[in-house]
């Protein structure tokens, strides 16, 4: 389980975004969906959570644990970018 960085003073400060991405968060959204379709994103997100909670087995898409961790980081950056777009 990855723990959040407790030393961050402002809790609403992005941790995964680069300075360039903070300046242009819409680029993170564009990059994310240039790599995966919305349907693929849904499938991987479901697999990640269901595997984490339900099984030790390899999922239907055959994603490795490393790939799922990478996907988690990408989702976290996407959420941060979306947060910046809304605030």
Structure description:
By secondary structure, the protein is mainly alpha-helical. The protein is 62% helix and 0% strand. It contains 4 helices and no strands. The chain has helices at residues 19-23, 26-35, 38-54, 65-86. Helix 2 (26-35) runs antiparallel to helix 4. The longest helix is centred in the C-terminal third of the chain and has 22 residues, at 65-86. It starts with 18 loop residues before the first helix and ends with a helix. The model has no long low-confidence stretch (mean pLDDT 79).
Outline of this structure?
This protein has 87 residues and is mainly α. It has helices spanning 19-23, 26-35, 38-54, 65-86. It has one domain.
Average of the residue pLDDT scores: 79
Number of strands: 0
Q: How far apart are the first and last residues' alpha carbons, in Å?
A: 28 Å
- The parts where pLDDT drops under 50 for at least 5 residues are none
Number of domains: 1
Estimate the strand proportion: under 5%
* SSE string: HHHH
**Overall form:** elongated
Structural class: mainly alpha
Share of residues in helices: 55-70%
- Give the biggest beta sheet: none
- Radius of gyration over all CA atoms, rounded: 14 Å
Count the DSSP helices. Answer: 4
Helix and strand arrangement:
Blueprint (H helix, E strand, L loop, with lengths): L18 H5 L2 H10 L2 H17 L10 H22 L1
């Amino acid at each position: 389980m990855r723990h959040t960085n407790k030393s961050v003073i402002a809790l609403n400060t992005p941790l995964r975004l680069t300075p360039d991405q903070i300046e242009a968060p819409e680029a993170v959204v564009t990059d994310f969906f240039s790599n995966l379709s919305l349907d693929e994103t849904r499938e991987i997100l479901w697999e990640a959570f269901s595997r984490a909670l339900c099984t030790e087995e390899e999922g239907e898409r055959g994603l490795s644990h490393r790939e799922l961790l990478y996907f988690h980081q990408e989702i976290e950056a996407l959420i941060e970018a979306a947060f910046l777009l809304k605030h």
